[in-house]
Write a structure and sequence with these properties.
Organism: Actinacidiphila acidipaludis
CATH topology of the domain at 3-250: Carbamate kinase
Protein name: Aspartokinase
Distance between the termini: 29 Å
InterPro entries: AceGlu_kinase-like_sf, ACT-like_dom_sf, ACT_Aspartokinase, ACT_dom, AKii-LysC-BS, Asp/Glu/Uridylate_kinase, Asp_kin_monofn, Asp_kinase
Helix content: 25-40%
Strand order of the largest sheet: 3-6-2-1-9-11-12-10
Number of strands: 20
Keywords: Amino-acid biosynthesis, ATP-binding, Diaminopimelate biosynthesis, Kinase, Lysine biosynthesis, Nucleotide-binding, Transferase
Radius of gyration: 23 Å
CATH architecture of the domain at 3-250: 3-Layer(aba) Sandwich
Pfam families: AA_kinase, ACT_9
Oligomer: single chain
Length: 424
């Protein structure tokens, strides 16, 4: 008997029929002789609807109460799913994140998991029950307040529980059949991968791929938990994410390129007229860090010899844009820059592949594809296995399609199927 952790996204449990379909799949896994722990997201667009409602009541909701509100969505899903399983003749118990032992820090709306103590989950499993856990949430270690892990946090909940329970696999069920070489909503000929290494998946996830959350993959790699990304709408095999391919069947040569990802959720801030002297950049990014804002790409222009001033541009989540502008404005007297520019009409395109570091033609092909598509580049960032560029948001779709085709990633078979929802 093996222990399996399954996670179902909001599109999989969007309505009563979806919940009943998921319940049947869970019961089938139980009948196959496995112990089953299920992590579930809120139904459909419930979280977005709760956020909209909160903003109508209070433009800037208090963090603690905001978390209390948002966790209601997952509690609804877990209770309904447990009811559906019981109607099929099997015992199920539902648990909130705190009841499941998910311990976090005290940062509301984007808490990080500190520890998982799944004593009640183990007891439920030992009694022959199926355990249903509300994803995306936990309890703070110090104040014992309800916290949320940020958007997509149910993925992280599932992997954290899999690690704590020493599960054989963590199955992430979504509305596509696995991990594709690009978003199948943008590239209809995107090809499903049977296996992808943690390293490549981390880069894709951090560059905008929606199928898995970056923190989830990072957690899985740290504890060596294999992830199986599958669709809850079909019985097809999905994509394995792990250190080694299943059965150790590693190909002689890893593919040069794993995929192309894109992200339209970022904004760009340019700090204009920064004195070109030691310490100025440090002061800028300390102000951003003190506001608890994560940044992505950073570019500093060459200093103008006549003025001794330079511009520094960086990208960050749109949701943090106004907070960053406010933090920098307060620091202007210290930094003595001229002005700030804010631009939220940008998009990022990333090419990912562990094989690119030993293939010198990759960079040239990438930029030639963008040039042929008439795409202008604003920022460039690279690592050993990734090249990212920032463009206008309207250029993202043609850019992704052009790069995908240029590297021969288009599938010759049927178009990728998107069963519904947003891919999470």
């Amino acid at each position: 008997m093996g222990l399996v952790v399954q996670k179902y996204g909001g599109s999989s449990v969007a309505d009563a029929e979806g919940i009943k379909r998921v319940a049947r799949r869970i019961v089938d896994t139980k009948k196959a002789g496995h112990q089953v722990v299920v992590v579930v997201s809120a139904m459909g667009d419930t979280t977005d609807e709760l956020i909209d409602l909160a903003e109508q009541v209070a433009p800037i909701p208090a963090g603690r109460e905001f978390d209390m509100l948002l966790t209601a969505g997952e509690r609804i899903s877990m209770a309904l799913l447990a009811m559906a399983i019981k109607s099929l003749g099997h015992e199920a118990q539902s648990f909130t994140g705190s009841q499941a032992g998910v311990i976090t820090d005290s940062v509301h709306n984007k808490a990080r998991i500190i520890d998982v103590t799944p004593g009640r989950i183990r007891t439920a499993l030992d009694e022959g029950n199926i355990a249903i856990v509300a994803g995306f949430q936990g309890v703070s270690q110090d104040k014992k307040d309800i916290t949320t892990l940020g958007r997509g946090g149910s993925d992280t909940t599932a992997v954290a529980l899999a690690a704590a329970l020493d599960a054989g696999v963590c199955e992430i069920y979504t509305d596509v059949d696995g991990v594709f070489t690009a978003d199948p909503r943008v590239v209809k000929k995107a090809r499903k991968m049977d296996w992808i290494a943690f390293e490549d998946m981390l880069e894709l996830a951090s560059s905008g791929s929606k199928v898995l959350l970056h923190r989830c993959v990072e957690y899985a790699r740290r504890y060596n938990i294999p992830i199986h990304v599958r669709s809850s709408f079909s019985g097809l095999p999905g994509t394995w994410v792990s250190n080694e391919p299943p059965q150790g069947e590693r190909p002689m040569e890893q593919a040069i390129i794993s995929g192309v990802s894109h992200d339209t959720s970022e904004a760009k801030i340019t700090v204009v007229g920064v004195p070109d002297k030691p310490g100025e950049a440090a002061t800028i990014f300390r102000a951003i860090a003190d506001a608890e804002i994560n940044i992505d790409m950073v570019v500093q222009n060459v200093s103008a010899a006549a003025t001794g001033l330079t511009d520094i541009s960086f990208t960050l989540p749109k949701a943090e844009g106004h907070k960053a502008m406010e933090a920098l404005s307060k620091a202007q007297t210290v930094i003595a820059f001229d002005s700030l520019r804010y631009d939220d009409q940008i998009g990022k395109i990333s090419l990912v592949g562990a094989g690119m570091k030993t293939n010198p033609g990759v960079t040239a092909t990438f930029f030639e594809a963008l040039s042929n598509a008439g795409v202008n580049i604003e920022l460039i960032s690279t690592s050993e296995i990734r090249i990212s560029v920032v463009t206008r948001v309207d250029d993202v779709k043609p850019a992704v399609q052009a790069v995908h085709s240029a590297f021969g990633l288009d599938s010759d078979s049927d178009e990728a199927v998107v069963y519904g929802g947003t891919g999470r």
